[in-house]
Amino acid sequence: MPTNQNPLLLEYDRLPFGEIEATHVVHAVRQILEDARSEIEKLVSLESTPTYADTIGRLDDVLERVKERTGPVTHLLSVAETPELREAYNEVLPEITEFWTRITLNEGLWGRIRALADTDEAAALPPLEKRHLDTTLRDFRRSGADLSTAGKEQLSTIRLEMSRLERKFSENVIDATNAYSLLIEDGDGRRLEGVPEPDREEARRKAAEKEEEGWLITLDYPSFEAIIKHAQDRELRRELYTAYIGRCRDGEFTNGEIIARLLHLRRELAELLGYTDFAEYRLEDHMAKTGERAFGFVEDMTRRTRPYWERDLAELREHASELGISGFEPWDSAFVGESLRRARFEIDDEVIRQYFPLDRVLAGMFEVVRRVFGLVVREQRIPEVWHPDVHHYELFREEDGTLLGSFYADWHPRPDKRQGAWMNDLRTGGPRNGGFEPHVGVVAGNLSPPKGDVPSLLTHREVETVFHEFGHLLHHLTSTVPIAPMAGINVAWDFVELPSQIMENWTWEEEVISLLSGHHETGEPLPGDLYNRLRSARTFMAGSRLMRQLSFGHLDLRLHRDHPDEVTHDLMSYIEGLFEEYTPSSTFAGMHPATSFTHLFAGGYAAAYYSYLWSEVLDADAFGRFHLEGIFSREVGQAYLDAILTRGDSDEPEHLFREFMGRDPDLQPLLDRSFGGPLEGGSSTVGGP
């Protein structure tokens, strides 16, 4: 295909998503990589003394161009995957992996960067450029630049196989999710007793789409959650739960062998690079620094959480007995918990969600961001989107009208879309040539979709999800770091969740709830008594929630610290053993989600899942300043922007946190927020992570 007809190779103001087709991918990616290799060879062949501009600056430009040009393809695989697009991407995935691996293994490039580091210019670089040079040197060494020729070939082979397996893992989860459906025929409607009417109507619509009569239940999360939380039919809950948790456990889309092979490859990579295990390798440039410290954090939090988890478990079992449920099982947990929550707090998610139509939540969130951070969001309708559900917005600085960036929002589930919620950076801008080049990003999720004439209505947990992902987006769009690889979300993995998780705190404040809520029929905000009950229920089952997160963090670190020969000898049994101390029984431990756990095996969180809870310590502590000085305080909001949100990786995360708070992190605010006070037997004053 001629270059001037391929949208992936054209210059554009907006990403041409409406024009990108699978047939464009292979040619475009190969051309992008070839152009980049040519530019790097020109850089390496320079005979002049290396300078920062013609070495680091030039390399950054080349690599950012590759990232920006290939980014739309990987994004579309997340939100609009087709068999043709998957096939095209998989054809060039080995070439993409090889390109990125070979950057740090290029001896000429490595020699030029080392030569630059020894110059007088390098010694006199401004702090930001000096940090970037030091980080580049570290990253090259961590990526095998000093290996022998044979070692480099081995590393390249490992990375290539890892990328292929991680991609296949993700594909298997999508395929297994889409492969399952359960048709409940018209005569069996009683099986859906307890399921909210809007969810029943959505299941009816899905059946009609397939020209079936009855209700079609699928494994997209809104459909699954409606059954597992509300269906009184215990056998139906068991069937859906078993199908959901059992995805990729065996059969056509099995992921067990992929997990085993990935664990061996990650250990092999770490040892090749001089580390004892993958966790030590992965966490060296994180706040935790070592696998031992991360594991110690998880163990300490487990000890503090366990009494509350045991209390929660006893209450669930007691309530299950009151409901006539004998032998408390995994598929009972969400149902019993929701029933107990309704009984104790007289609160029902299906009542609450009537007050949180998505459009109202977004408008309220944008107003919070304007008041606190002086940022204005405006919707801009454009034709260049990948689905009619997608909306496009621009973000401005209120005080001077500067356009900071634009973003796409894609909130609802589809069969061709991956599970979960996420944010991606599509283009990194920032200060350029005396002006500001706008950033571009995307937020996506699988929130409750519109049902007939009823708009998308969110649970409060889904409202938190919207704020969470928007926090990531703000971290990207507000960045003022002029060096793209150090801007926005390019920070330590256990720091990157701070800007997202801190945003969730606003969703619990009464003044904010009045902005976010409005009954979809009357416009009435959430009544005060409902808010008080919602707020009172915030710590409900907090021990169970935290223990679940800790179980994943424990699993992750053990898988990546223990020797893979021991782990994979009987992988499923080994994993079950790791869950034993975090679950009520061996049945619960056996029904683990490892084979569909994309965070660990396809999503970048390998050996770093603890980061979520680590960042919760930071966000609970940092939001305390807003509570003290005012949740809408523009002064505190500006201080947060200046110290953390706009700063990217321009300084160590510990320093940025200290700049905002005036001290190191404190664990106590998280314990107070989660449990209403210190745990029994715990110290009233504790250190940070």
Task: Explain this structure.
By secondary structure, this protein is α+β, with helices and mostly antiparallel strands. It has 29 helices and nine strands. The strands form three sheets. A five-stranded mixed sheet has the order 3-4-5-9-6, sandwiched between helices. Strands 1-2 form a two-stranded antiparallel ribbon. Strands 7-8 form a two-stranded antiparallel sheet. A hairpin with a 2-residue loop joins strand 7 and strand 8 (435-437). The longest helix is centred in the middle third of the chain and has 32 residues, at 291-322. It is globular and about 80 Å long.
Q: What assembly state would you assign to the polypeptide chains in this entry?
A: single chain
According to DSSP, the number of beta strands is 9
Uncertain runs are: 679-687
Q: Percentage of helical residues?
A: 55-70%
Gyration radius (Cα, Å) is 25 Å
